[in-house]
Amino acid sequence: MTGFLESELPIVAAPMAGGPTTVALVGAVQGAGAFPFLAGGYKKAEALAAEVRQVRELGGTFGVNLFVPGADAVDAAAFRAYAAELAPEAAPYGLELNPQPVVDDDDEWPDKLALLLAEPVPVVSLTFGLPDVRDIAALRRVGSRVLATVTTAAEAKIARDAGVDGLVVQAPAAGGHSGTYDPLRTLTPVSAPDLVREVRAAVELPVVVGGGVASAEDVRVLLAAGAEAVVVGTLLLRTDESGASQTHKDALAAPIFAETTITHAFTGRPARGLRNGFIDRHETAAPYGYPAIHHLTRPLRQAAAKAGDADRLHLWAGTGFRAAREVPAVEVIQELARGL
């Protein structure tokens, strides 16, 4: 048993916001002996509360991930120009994109925090920086272990000083949004094992790590580097229990998509996904600024997903995406645990 997370296996299912992480996926991961996270991002507090209660009824241990609130500055003129550039992308779906930035991140942090204080869960992880240290302390007082997502040793020190219990170390090879505290920072290439060693040398906190995991050998290497557990996300996207769109699932196996890249064109914050036409056409012009760019492109991305249009969809994926299979989630966990 992995003592820090109290799970049988040192494997963690990443919280994949926006639909991929479902209660069914959490249950399947629990049943396989690994540790699952519910994704609280992009979700109303009421919906998260319902999911927490459903998962609690399953009886196993689990965590909840929250996006830390914040609004990155966005240049209004650059935003309007980008909205105009994207108009032809939206036109086939009858959409008119809003040229005015929406900078209010309506992720209901106060309500979600209140929920987790009233109905504590075993673990709470934080992404996109750190909240007020009083919020971290409050979560710990009610019995939750608090993990902070970090992408560098320097961020690990900041998280340690804020009073967290442990760290989720996210290597650049990870799919989806980077948890970097500075969205304008260039994500310097570093392997997940090397990043674990850098963080462990900087702080004395338990570490779980993810980024590019594709095999049982990857898991063994990361554990040997000093991680308490290994996070897997992309490999679960095509599983039977995943709530990812069929367009996303199909793209992960399509020969036309040959590589991943880091882009801010979809949301204004760096994220790794399959390189497609939208990225090629708009990465250079796209301004930074989350969640304003996220709100701008969201209707287009939703329409593209429904239409099977992978060329205009954010296809989040880590570098190990070719290993993602269309199987029950338990098979993915079992394969990653082979030889442990």
From TrEMBL:
Cofactor or coenzyme needed: FMN
Gene3D superfamilies with a match to the protein in the record: Aldolase class I (3.20.20.70)
Superkingdom per UniProt: Bacteria
The keyword Flavoprotein belongs to this UniProt entry's keyword annotation: yes
Reaction equation(s) it catalyzes: 3 propionate 3-nitronate + 3 O2 + H2O = 3 3-oxopropanoate + 2 nitrate + nitrite + H2O2 + 3 H(+)
Record GO terms (molecular function): monooxygenase activity
Keyword flag Cell division: no
PANTHER family, sorted: NITRONATE MONOOXYGENASE-RELATED
Family listed: Belongs to the nitronate monooxygenase family. NMO class I subfamily.
Name under which the protein is recorded: Propionate 3-nitronate monooxygenase
Organism per entry: Catenulispora pinistramenti
